[in-house]
Description:
Number of helices of chain B: 17
Distance between the termini of chain A: 57 Å
Radius of gyration of chain B: 27 Å
Distance between the termini of chain B: 43 Å
Radius of gyration of chain A: 23 Å
CATH superfamily of chain A: Cytochrome C biogenesis protein
Number of domains of chain A: 1
CATH architecture of chain A: Orthogonal Bundle
Helix content of chain B: 55-70%
Largest sheet of chain A: none
CATH topology of chain A: Helicase, Ruva Protein, domain 3
Number of strands of chain B: 10
Helix content of chain A: 40-55%
Order of helices and strands of chain B: HHHHHHHHHHHHHHHHEEEEEEEEEEH
Oligomer: heterotrimer
Mean pLDDT of chain A: 80
Low-confidence stretches of chain A: 1-19, 130-134
Low-confidence stretches of chain B: 298-303, 643-647
Amino acid sequence: xxxxxIIFILIYFFNPLISNAIEPEEILSxxxxxxxxxxxxxxxxxxxxxxxxxDDSDSELAKDLRSIIRTKIVQGETDEEINKFLxxxxxxxxxxNPPINNQTIMLWLSPLTLALLGxxxxxxxxxxxxxxxx
Amino acid sequence: xxxxxxxxxxxxxxxxxxTLSLCQFALKFFKVNEKPVFIPIISILGFSCxxxxxxxxxxxxxxxxxxxxxVAKFSHTSKPLIxxxxxxxxxxxxxxxxWILILQFFGLITSLIKMPDKFHSTLNSVQGFLSSLFxxxxxxxxxxxxxxxxxxxxxxxxxxVLQDLSLAVHPPILYVGYVGLSVAFTFAIAxxxxxxxxxxxxxxxxxxxxxxxxxxxxxxxxxxxxxxxxLGWGGWWFWDPVENAALMPWLIATALMHSIIVYEKxxxxxxxxxxxxxxxFSFSILGTFIVRSGIITSVHSFATDPKRGLIxxxxxxxxxxxxxxxxxxxxxxxxxxTSINFLSKEMILIINNxxxxxxxxxxxxxxxxPLILEIFTGSQITVGAPYFLTxxxxxxxxxxxxxxxxxxxxxxxNHLNEILNTFILPIIVxxxxxxxxxxxxxxxxxxxxxxxxxxxxxxxxxxxxxKSANLDALFNKNKNFKYLTNYQLAVCIAHLGVxxxxxxxxxxxxxxxxxxxxxKPGEKIYIGGNLLxxxxxxxxxxxxxxxxxxxxxxxxxxxxxxxxxYPEKRMFPVERQxxxxxxxxxxxxxxxxAVMGDGNIDKGYTFRIYSKPFxxxxxxxxxxxxxxxxxxxxxxFHKLPFRKSKL
Amino acid sequence: xxxxxxxxxxxxxxxLLSLMGVILLQQSQNTSQKTLKSTLVNxxxxxxxxxxxxxxxxxxxxxxxxxxxxxxxxxxxxxPCRIEVGNLETLSEKIKIIGIxxxxxxxxxxxxxxxxxxxxxxxxxxxxxxxxINWGVYGVPETFLINSKGQVILRHAGPITENVLKKLLIPKxxxxxx
Lengths: 134, 647, 178
């Protein structure tokens, strides 16, 4: 990741159009739409940043993606359709929250599995033993 | 040239230190342990050599000796002195040397404490082994005294985002925490090797765990606080792999702090405590591996290097597989002759441990899963904040609930009706609070749950104080007030810290208000029930940057000035980076947070202004936790006998 | 049972460390830099109709299907783009290259081409970056190889260096008969 990050730091340094996260001009006048746009943006990863969403990123790409999201919301697309649009082009990596599919099922089940495993271990460690060791 | 001499001396003394550590390790094999006098001597010598070496490196940084490769890469003559000094540990090689210094310092202290001879000599030997391991890593693969091939006229500078006081201090504090865990590790290994784990051992061990925990708490808090005021995103925790890498050892340290209490008081959880000592240290090294090997990159990344990663991975292998093998072999030494009642303090502490350790594994899985998935399937995914919050929230809820009950419950057994009598008042009040917040104030459900549980916890802390200080002596003339012991104070203050922290975290998450505008001088913003007026923008020259500073005046409804805020943008010509300096107006009940964007006088400037209620409670809560830790440390330290000069 | 419990930590650690070792080994063998994978590979390229650089005509990429071609996103303000022009010119002898000027000003693009070279058969413009987003582009330069059926068979993010030219592109071109 670091290598492509470096490349794009170079690129974005030379770009005179660097903006600063959400610009006032981007904000939609319809507040319901704007709320949806903000919530969606907070779930989309900025691809050229370190662990930021496009909602708080300064980069050009983030700004473009924010603008596309707003356009689509105004045109009446649903959140699922917008997410699909982005995933079709950039893959699941762009979603801050991984989807639930057979590749990520282990990830989503692991908390529960760990909890159950823990309970089992505690039970076996602490149950009364009839024939004891000293 | 004196500079040259000093660098060479630094290098030589580092080698001397390694030699001494190897001797320290070998002492055990030569029956010299029968004369305990050797133990402190070799520790003192080893530490002194490392100290000289460290000072030599520090000298090179302070005088900007660019013949040393490290100084050339991470420093610059124009940097303020404090950052020249902290530049030493802002990189892999220097921070490793700092780690070793602290490790040997702690080793020195343990050598001066009077402990049973057999244990003490094994302990010393294990510590020698660990020091040797890290000194070898340092000398053979990450030598801080490596010379530059070409001596530059000036250094490459330090990332301006890192030129900050909190961040300068953050690594040393965290390293005290990690090294503390390594001392706990050596205690566990020494006990396993000798085949003896007992309460005496726990008494000697506990101060180290608490010290480590306090340092980790403060270190993480400092890092988080820095992110809040420096990065300008308004956030304070991002579930970044490196943040997670520090959080996992903290969780293990917290679990360890609690399990060792069970062991000291009741002899239970001995094996588990030993295991946690090994795990705590393993997670620290794992954290190091994650940050420095290049498998994950983040804002914390030092220059990454797969070869270095392989070396750290090998170390991780040695310090986990070997001890765990010994642990499995020595399982016989852990016997249990009592059983644990379900309604007892022990059980609550076991539940606490269970929650903490599971949390750290969830974080581990979330952090490593994208990597592992990509290796095995080629798919790339992101595991971000939503995953961690979703999976950890239920555990946090349980934690807050049990934290209220635990301190009040008795050891061994409690009767169900006694319990209900004790807790009926807090339960009722908490439910009333819940109804109030949810139905009358219409707060979001999760926020209400969070607040109600925080209040539940506070009520139970008050209950504990009431009982422990015999406050019912107010009504009962036969009873006397009691002072709370250090230990009881520790529990109350630390748990209070958790409650305060929770209130802050929940408020910040749910009750933030954000305003984004482009305004010209003279224009106003309504926020926090008051007005923020944009005055003007000035330019200023700093020591190594050029700044644009906006002046915002915060006034109340009557026009009285409450405060002035000066958000800035800074341009660093050497490093060619621009940073924002956030302006924050802090009050106990909330912050006003102002970030300046681009623009000019004609078109106006962009500002992002936030009102963040109770956000300071996040840091205040964490500091309270640390203060609680200090009381706990005091109560555990005074049990330690220091070695008199009967050598 | 007790022995089994005591062995759990050891086995889990073993598994974990082996996994990490595998990760590291894979990474150190990986010659190409770590990049975001393209969703377009082995799929038809997205519908793209863009204005040409001279602003006189519209270019519909669908019309280019038939012979293989390269699509290269570039900008005058992008430093790595300068590095790859020479290698692109080498490639242009074997295969058509369509350039897409990303978020740039026409006069700057012309200056860039004059100063560093012009390997392109056609050049289109993408002022708002939306065409790039349709292609899953996240920075410049990025290059796509399209086969005679209109499918993307390769995507390279970053400049086409000597190494990339020799080890990635030329072999791939040979595969499709060029």
